[in-house]
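User: Some background: our group keeps a shared notebook of sequences we're curious about, and every so often someone picks one and asks for a predicted structure to add to the entry. Today it's my turn. The entry only has the sequence so far, pasted here. Could you supply the structure so I can complete it?
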Amino acid sequence: MNVKQHQWFTIFILILAVLWGFHLTAAATADAAGSNPNYRSFANAGELQVYMKWHPDRVPLISAHRGGPMENFPENALETFENALKYGPCLIECDVQVTKDGHLVMMHDNTLDRTTTGEGKVSHHTLVQIKKLFLKDVSNKITGFRVPTLAEVLRWAVGRAVLTIDVKAKDRVPFEQVISEIRRYKAEGHAIIIVYNIEDMLKVHRLAADLMISVTVTGIKAVEKLLAAGVPAENLVAFVGVYEPDINVYEMLHEKGIRTILGTMHNLDNKAAARGVSVYQQLYKNGADILSTDNVPLVSRAIMEESEDSHEGHEGTRREEEKKDDKN
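Assistant: Of course. Here's the predicted structure to add to the notebook entry:
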């Protein structure tokens, strides 16, 4: 092999090494995307409906309110959503606003001041302007995280988590546009649309009969109105408020196979922080199926400890039965 041939051979080996490095990086990324045991993946809305249907042996679920913000992790940020999934298989509750130029971005308030380095109304700023801002965490500390679009969040969610999307209808965020984005990214198996009244529920169901809807029902009369509205039970999740409802509310919804969400943000979260995980455990026992919380780590701990206690109880019962069998 002459010098020129040797040079070309060396270049060829280097190219192969670079390509192999790209391959390993891609493989590692793919592995990482599927490595979290708390990820949940559903191919379509039908699979999601089966997962969300109430049954007596249902597993308690967590809804990370505004995505699960905490120190260093601001609300409605992709990084915060991913962090919440370290604690358990959470539903990710998130909020949508619309920009001046018609893009859907993740933001609870209709103004930028509280959660970003910007000022003024979201609807008075273009997407480019909002993308230059940084998000602030629960302590008002500026982070390195940016405001995501709904499109970015939907792409992230597929294969990872179920989103409950709070469409800010009062701020003129169109349901049609949100549904169009869900369709565009084939996220029907990872998206539940939040509404606050029967009229909006019926509108969303007319626009997308396969999608799941989370609707607010506070009290027995509201449940009766919901069940009489004609939307199939398998399409529904019921948000029952931020205080425990009458036990009949749970029973009426469960009888139809509808899971319930109880909002523990603020009052009940504060109670649990002071008194311990037994507060959350009792809420689940009383009939709540999903707790929408600002304290994802503590609710996750409550579920894990209850599961461990239940397992130990079953093991103790089994051992007692074995002892009786031995005596016989």
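Suggested note for the entry: The first strand starts at residue 61 and ends at 64. The longest helix spans residues 296-327.
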